[in-house]
Design goal:
- 78% of the residues lie in helices and 0% in strands.
- By secondary structure, it is mainly alpha-helical.
- It has a single domain, classed as Up-down Bundle (Ferritin).
- α1 runs antiparallel to α4.
- The longest helix has 30 residues.
Length: 151
């Protein structure tokens, strides 16, 4: 649903969606962190803590860039809350690591689509380009960690 709307959205709304997904990642990973159990409890607990903290840092960077470029209306609290709820509902199975992995992979797909849409609309500053690339690099690193933990 989120990805289908991208072509129709203005740059501020696109980035609002991007930020909401990062905020949802934080919640998904933190929830998994709290619910870890079993023989690998401590390793998974620490890994998910690392991952949710990186999501918070990435969300902060993305939100500040978004507000700087597209105005504070891009980060509307009510719209963010609705998007976060829609996103988190998709990743609520009992397997916390699988939830986290699927959410990260979906975010990377969304990131690429938003990046391409912004680029085509000539709405991608050099700083925003760099921020999206950096955030994508962080999220891909988390995909590696989660895949290795599930192997």
């Amino acid at each position: 649903m989120l990805m289908k709307k991208l072509a129709q959205s203005d740059p501020g709304k696109l980035m609002g969606t991007y930020v909401a997904f990062l905020r949802a990642l934080y919640i998904i990973h933190q929830n998994g962190h709290w619910k870890c159990k079993g023989p690998s409890f401590y390793a998974h607990h620490l890994m998910l803590e690392r991952i949710y903290k990186s999501a918070a840092e990435d969300a902060d960077l993305a939100a500040e860039k978004t507000i700087g470029l597209f105005g504070s209306d891009s980060i509307n609290l009510s719209a963010q809350s609705k998007l976060i709820q829609q996103i988190t509902e998709r990743y609520s199975s009992e397997n916390n690591l699988e939830n986290s992995l699927k959410a990260e992979k979906d975010f990377v797909i969304l990131s690429k689509k938003i990046y391409n849409t912004l680029k085509e609309a000539d709405s991608l500053s050099l700083g925003l380009d760099d921020a999206i690339m950096s955030i994508s690099n962080n999220r891909e690193g988390n995909i590696y960690l989660l895949q290795q933990s599930l192997a």
